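So, can you check?
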Amino acid sequence: MSQNYKPLGNYTQPVSGRNSDLEDLPLVGLSIQKKFVPSIAHTIGTDMSTYRIIERNQFAYGPVTSRNGEKITLALQTRK
């Protein structure tokens, strides 16, 4: 079965949309359950222009952290 695997990069491209206009958008994070979850981050004094905007039908990936174990943090944005 592994011979049928193909690199995901053949079907995706990086998107770097940032919140440069400082829009008032909901701040969300990613869970290892493959879902977007409301953020609990303290953002007072944070430069929100560096945060990425994930549009509908785009995937978001979070780099591996020690709490993930062998799971990757990935989710598909289905909301507008």
User: Anything to note?
Assistant: The first strand starts at residue 28 and ends at 30. The chain has a mean pLDDT of 86. Residues 11 and 77 are 17 Å apart (CA to CA).
